[in-house]
Amino acid sequence: MKKILLFAVMAMVLCGCNKDGDSLNGTTWEYLEDIGFAKSEAIISFQKSTFTATMKEWQYTDDKYVLRYDISDAGTYIYDPPNVILTENGNTTSATISGNKMTINNADGFVYVKK
User: Fold this and answer.
1) DSSP class per residue in 50-64
2) Average pLDDT, the chain
3) Is the peptide bond prior to 82 cis by the omega test (within 30 degrees of 0)?
């Protein structure tokens, strides 16, 4: 009986880990936009339970693109496929993942692509 219980516990330990695709750890997602007079790039990189986000925007001025801003921040996330809840500085944003695309669930609906 003890062997059966031990086997069951070991099976849960070995198989109970996140399946491939059920983890964002180590993934990076990118959003790019080019509307001619401005370019934007946003990158979200996920670690085990945290994420880092960077956003850059360039404005076309005097026949060249000039960096307007470069923002970086970090936060925590909860991933319950296909939904992601991102919390950064007390602000919460949700996203939905489908394949290699992550759509931010807000009025803008930015779509990030997995790199």
Assistant:
1) EEEEEEEEEEEETTE
2) 85
3) yes
Q: What is the pLDDT of residues 49-98, one digit of tens each?
A: 999 999 999 999 999 999 999 999 999 999 999 999 999 999 999 999 99
Contacts of 68 by beta carbon, 8 Å cutoff, 6+ apart: 38, 57, 58, 59
Residues paired with 44 in a beta bridge: 29, 53
**What is the distance between the alpha carbons of residues 92 and 46, in angstroms, rounded to a whole number?**
16
CB 33 within 8 A of CB 39: yes
Task: Spell out the domains of the chain, with CATH numbers in brackets.
Answer: 26-114 (2.40.128.50)
Scan for tokens 């399946």, then name that residue.
19
